[in-house]
C-alpha cells in the first residue's frame, strides 16, 4: 500500500474494555504495525451520562495491560463538539443538510403511517425543501442530511465484500440534535476525516452505519476511508458474547490469571488465521496480519483453548518476566495484597523466583500458580488439607522423623543432591519413592499435591524445610 496507513480504535467508555473491543483494537493495531502506519485512540465520550474519568481510565488500563499502544494522545470526541457544529453549518450552506422543525410526535406519526402502508418507517422529508421563512419560532430544529433519494450507496468492504444499499432505504437522518449536539453518525465522520483515518476496522454490527456515514463523507466531498467490518465474537453456545457467558471485559481476564501475551494470541485467532498456526509471537502476528484472511462468520470464544494457550505461555515466559506479570495480577486479585506484602519482605522475591520453574510447569493460570505457591508464605504450623491429613499416618510420621535426620546431614541444599539423599533413604528402607515423597510433600506444603518436592525444598530453604518436617514428625 502506497499511502500512509492510519487506523483508529474508537471505544465508548462503558467502564471496561469489552473483549470484543479488545479484539478490534488488536486488529487495528496489527494492521497499522504491519504497514508501518499509526493507530490512533479516540474516546467516543459524547454520552456525558456514561462518560466518566474512571470509565476512560478503565479502557486505557485494559489496552495497556494487553500491550496495545497508540500514537499521540487519546482524543476526546466531546472536546470536538465545536468542530462538529462548524461542519453542520457548512453542510446547511452548501445545501447538503437542512433544518427540520417536526416534533418527535410528528415523526412518530410519519413512521406509523409508513408501517401501516407496508413501507419502511422513514422520515418523509417534510422540511426537505420548505422555505426557511415558514419555520416556527418556538421550536429548536434538528439538522438532517439531505440524502440522495434514488440510486445506491456502495460499501466496498474489505472483509464483508461489496455491500449495496438502495438510497431510498436510508432517508434524511438526523446529524445534529435540537440541543446542538452532533449525532454519532456525524461526529464519527468528521473525526475520522480530521484525524486522517485511512482504514476503519470495526465490528460487523457497525456495517449498518457504513452506508449512512459514506453519504456524509460524500456530502462533504471528502474521501471515504476503506472499511473493514470484522465478525462478532460469540460465546461457546453460539450466542453473542455477553455477561451470561462470564467474563466480558479485559480486566476480568486479568483477574482470572491470564497473561496478556496469551490473550493477544488468542484474540488474534478469533476471526483471523494464518494457516494452521496456533501459537504466534507478536512479531509473527505483525508480519502475517492482513484483512484478506479475516473471515466473515462469527468466531466462538472457547475458554478451554484460551486456558491451554495460557498454560503454554506460562511455561514459555522467562521467570523474571513471569514474576512481573504475577505481581500485576496480584495487584488486582481479591487476596493479592497479602501475597504482594510477602513478596516485598526480606529475600522473598528471590524465594519466589527459585520456586517459579516448578510452579509454572503445573499451572495454566496465575490463579492456579498462586494457589500452588501458597506453601511459600504459609505460617507454621501449617494448616493441612484433607488429602495431607490422610497421608500423614503414623507410619508416614516415622518416615518424616527419619528424613529429618537424613536432610540435616545434607551439605548442598540444591535439588540434585537432595533428590539423591531422599532416593538413597527409600532404597535403604526398601520403600517405594512415593511412600517417602508423599509425606514429605504433605509436611512441607500442607497439601496433597504440589510442585516437584525437590523444588519445594530448595525454595523453602534448609531452615524452614527442616522445621516444617519436624512439625509433622513423630
Secondary structure elements and their pairing?
Blueprint (H helix, E strand, L loop, with lengths): L5 E4 L9 H16 L3 E6 L9 H14 L8 E2 L4 H13 L3 E4 L3 H13 L25 E4 L6 E6 L3 E6 L7 E3 L7 H11 L4 E5 L3 H13 L6 E5 L2 E2 L15 H6 L4 H9 L13 H7 L10 E2 L2 H14 L2 H14 L3 H9 L3 H15 L3 H8 L12 H6 L2 H15 L6 H14 L4 H13 L7 H20 L2
Parallel strand pairs: 1-2, 2-3, 9-10, 11-12
Antiparallel strand pairs: 4-5, 5-8, 6-7
Could you walk me through the main structural features you see in this protein, from its secondary elements to its overall organization?
With 474 residues, this protein is mostly helical. It folds into four domains: 6-71 and 233-304, Rossmann fold, CATH 3.40.50; 79-230, HUPs (Rossmann fold); 318-376, no CATH class; 386-472, Arc Repressor Mutant, subunit A (Orthogonal Bundle), CATH 1.10.10.350. Helices cover 49% and strands 10% of the residues. It is built from 19 helices and twelve strands. The strands form five sheets. The chain has a three-stranded parallel β-sheet with strand order 1-2-3. Strands 4-5-8 form a three-stranded antiparallel β-sheet. Strand 1 (6-9), helix 1 and strand 2 form a beta-alpha-beta unit. Helix 3 (81-93) packs across helix 5 (184-194) and helix 17 (415-428) packs across helix 19. The radius of gyration is 31 Å and the shape is elongated.
Compose a concise summary of this entry.
This protein is mainly alpha-helical.
